[in-house]
Write a structure and sequence with these properties.
The chain is mainly alpha-helical. Helices cover 51% and strands 4% of the residues.
């Protein structure tokens, strides 16, 4: 199990990204628009810099929703490799079976 504080911090970041996503995308479109004057673009960049760091979607870490483990994450299932293996052996994941050759 991952530390509860790490999982809580990541959840807080997810909420913050959702909260600031509209404002962030608006400022980014202004900053990247080549047709606007440089002064207006620079103002948009400064406003982007003033937004909270955790509102950037890059800071979200993929974590297993069962154990909270950040490594060995399988995106399709939203599980870590260890949890995936345990659940697959118990038959809790439909359509997944152990292969052998």
């Amino acid at each position: 199990m991952a530390k509860v504080s790490s999982v809580a911090r990541n959840n807080k970041r997810k909420k913050m990204v959702e909260q600031y996503s509209a404002k962030r995308s608006e400022l980014k479109s202004i900053a990247n628009n080549q047709d606007l004057p440089n002064e207006e673009r620079m103002n948009a960049r400064k406003k982007l810099d003033k937004l909270p760091k955790n509102s950037n979607p890059i800071r979200i870490r993929n974590r297993c929703f069962v154990s909270g483990r950040p490594r060995g994450y399988i995106n399709y299932f939203g599980l870590s490799r260890i949890t995936f293996r345990e659940m697959a052996h118990k038959g809790l994941l439909p359509g997944v079976k152990k292969s052998s050759w």
